[in-house]
Write a structure and sequence with these properties.
Blueprint: H1 2-28, E1 45-55, E2 61-73, E3 78-82, E4 85-88, E5 96-99, E6 102-105, E7 112-122, E8 131-141, E9 146-156, E10 160-170, E11 175-186
Antiparallel strand pairs: 1-2, 2-3, 2-4, 3-6, 4-5, 5-7, 6-7, 7-8, 8-9, 9-10, 10-11
Amino acid sequence: MNERFAAWFPLLLLALLAALTFWIDRTVRPTPPAPDGMTRHDPDFIAEKLYAIRMTPTGKIKHALSAEKMIHYPDDDTTHLASPVFTSYAAPNSPLAITAKEGLVSSEGENVYFRNNVRAVRAPYDNKSELAVQTDYLHIIPDDNIAKTDRPVTITDANIVVDAIGLELNSETRILKLHSRVRGTYEQNKK
């Protein structure tokens, strides 16, 4: 019996080592991602020539968003926009239109971020001329009628050019706050 055990011992030891190696390999190996696609950054839908509006309870247009292309990603629930145009009708007789090369809409649409060649233009009204704001980044909170940035901005009006770092604009109250390094130039109308 002892001789039989001695003959089988190396084989049993080898089988035990193989089982132990297999168990250690399974324990340290990371679990593979679930095949539900939520861990990948792949779009679940794409739309071209998009136009969407949000209305007030009385049926008036509150704001509109259009884009050449929209791509939605389910993993972070964001929507990426190409050539977006956001128009706020908070002040009905002078809408504010914001354009850019790129845009990003957060999951519930509560924040919209515009990047690259951002331009906000308030239409002229009454005796006020057109007002244009240029920057490279603008964060919009549509439901609060707020547009803000912490980046350099240039504001132009009929006779005024203002450069600053950072701004906050309320399109409903028409209050524009400049944060720092404000420099302005005024040129009187020539008659």
